[in-house]
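@channel sequence for tomorrow's demo:
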Amino acid sequence: MSNRTTVTEFLLLGFSDTRELQILHFFIFLAAYLAALMGNLLIITIVTLNYELHSPMFFFLINLSLLDLGSITVTLPKSMSNSLLNTRSISYSGCVAQVFCLICFLGANLSLLTVMAYDRYVAICKPLHYEIIINRRASVQMASCAWAAGVIYSALHTGNTFTITFCHSNIINQFFCEVPQLLKLSCSDTYRRELAVIAFSVFLALGCFVFIVVSYVQIFTAVGRIPSEQGHQKAFSTCIPHLIVVSLFLSTVVIAYLKPISDSPSPLDLLAAVLYSVVPPLMNPVIYSMRNKEIQAALRKLLRKF
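structure tokens (generated this afternoon):
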């Protein structure tokens, strides 16, 4: 029997059966969502309105903010809606869309962070060739490839996940549709193909991680040869925020996907999901605004206009 006839909807994890706690959950997630929304839109607005920031690095930063907005919008609004309406259900098609969009945004995010590492490597290690290598056309092509990689990877991942037959249960022990939780509901051998895709995903992520690490080894070696203290500070002000964002993203995703999955609702599973789906989109604008002097200067300039 097809999984489409076996399961027509899924039941997501409810944070509580107590109405007051459901409302509290709604307002906590609403505050996190609005903070992420305002922070990322502020980054996009600052870069767009300041001609001085119309460089490849900040073009990539706009794309990162768009991806962060997409990833948090996929998960939080549905969870907030369920708490407010005192329900747990999500349709089969809604679950498919949620899985596809979330994996697409996360995959594109990792690809873009890798591209940004390469951008910083060229800017610091090959400054005389920067405008030739990372010109406007090249930066648009690299950003487009990051988005395309996310779409293709997500289509492969989502297609494999939803070809399996779900018949053990329709209860997902997570506040959104998450692939590891969906695989627990499988009663067919086809889930092994999805495990192979996950293994391939780990290999790709490891490749991106190695590329980023090698890039930063080269970057810090080059920075160490810069004679002036001002040159050191400028290089670090553009590199450190990106390095923090990469570390935050990879560590939260690794925690979420490599930890053992509990057979029953687990606070650890919930915490891991919040860490990689909520924390990076929420913290990335803060990290860039606090550590990047050009963003700080542009923000002060924008505030003076009002």
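heads up for whoever presents: DSSP finds twelve helices and two strands in the chain.
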